[in-house]
């Protein structure tokens, strides 16, 4: 089976404002088939290197199942040649909650203390729907056709519906949910791919009734268990436990190839 390894003298760089570049150099061993070499290279090369983007690669047969590969990364060119774009909105999302941040006032003849529970009835806590902060953003990238392989498309598929396992685009671990990607091929040069994300902030030191010190990541789910209690001989419901549930798998967003 063919393998690919980076050479010790790889990452030769040209530094400058106008035309910076980096050359990654590899050796492919164990095959005489150029198609197998290309498939292995395309599955291995990152789409970006630092702030530089992939431009092209060169393969040279050395004989005996040995190939030399040089991949060039350079500055973003005008949009028609591959510049990315970015859009966002802060429209937020909807969530049902059963617990308020604070009971501002209560009225009536000696109203019971529900410790922030909302819509308490005899048998349940009804709660209410609120708007929560969600930062939706889309990045559109123009990716060389050689890198948009079947394996890369499968990676996009499996990362959809996962949250970031490491800091990503300025957000902390657990704050970004990948909503998927849509793409179309532009001629024989590249693909235009839009990557969609939603970010929700991590939270610390949350308080539910008398329960304090609760921590949850942005896309984890917090729910509250209520139990019957007495308030001056009146049977009421109050929070007795809070649970933080992880409902999304973590994913390595570096595999998207659009930088972190």
Summed up:
By secondary structure, this protein is mainly beta. The protein is built from two helices and 18 strands.
Structural write-up:
The protein has 260 residues and is mainly β. It has 2 domains: 1-75, no CATH class; 77-260, no CATH class. Helices cover 8% and strands 48% of the residues. It has 2 helices and 18 strands. The strands form 6 sheets. Strands 1, 2, 3, 4, 5 and 6 form a 6-stranded antiparallel β-sheet that branches. A hairpin with a 2-residue loop joins strand 5 (52-63) and strand 6 (66-74). The longest helix is centred in the N-terminal third of the chain and has 11 residues, at 34-44. The protein is elongated and about 90 Å long.
Quaternary arrangement of the chains shown?
single chain
Terminus-to-terminus distance: 32 Å
Roughly what fraction of the amino acids lie in strands? over 45%
Estimate percent helicity: under 10%
Number of domains: 2
Mean pLDDT across all amino acids: 90
Biggest β-sheet: count, sense, barrel? 6 strands, antiparallel
Q: Which secondary-structure class do the elements indicate?
A: mainly beta
So how many helices?
A: 2
């Amino acid at each position: 089976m063919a393998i690919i390894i980076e050479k010790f003298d790889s990452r030769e760089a040209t530094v400058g404002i106008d035309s910076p570049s980096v050359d990654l150099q590899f050796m492919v061993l164990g095959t005489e088939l150029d198609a197998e070499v290309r498939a292995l290279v395309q599955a291995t090369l990152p789409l970006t290197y630092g702030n530089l983007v992939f431009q092209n690669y060169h393969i040279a047969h050395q004989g005996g199942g040995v190939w030399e590969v040089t991949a060039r990364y350079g500055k973003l060119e005008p949009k028609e040649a591959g510049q990315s774009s970015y859009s966002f909105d802060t429209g937020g999302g909807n969530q049902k909650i059963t617990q308020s941040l604070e009971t501002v006032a209560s009225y009536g003849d000696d109203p019971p203390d529900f410790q922030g529970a909302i819509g308490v009835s005899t048998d349940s806590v009804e709660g209410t729907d609120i708007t929560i902060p969600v930062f939706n953003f889309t990045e559109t990238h123009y990716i060389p056709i050689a890198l948009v392989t079947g394996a890369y498309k499968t990676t996009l598929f499996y990362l959809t519906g996962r949250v970031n396992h490491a800091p990503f685009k300025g957000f902390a671990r657990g704050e970004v949910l990948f909503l998927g990607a849509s793409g179309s091929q532009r001629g024989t040069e590249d693909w235009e791919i839009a990557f969609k994300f939603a970010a929700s902030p991590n939270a610390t030191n949350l308080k539910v009734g008398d329960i304090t010190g609760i921590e949850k990541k942005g896309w984890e789910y917090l729910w509250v268990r209520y139990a019957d209690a007495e308030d001056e001989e009146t049977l009421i419901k109050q929070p007795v436990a809070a649970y933080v549930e992880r409902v999304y798998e973590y994913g390595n967003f570096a595999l998207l190839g659009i930088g972190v």
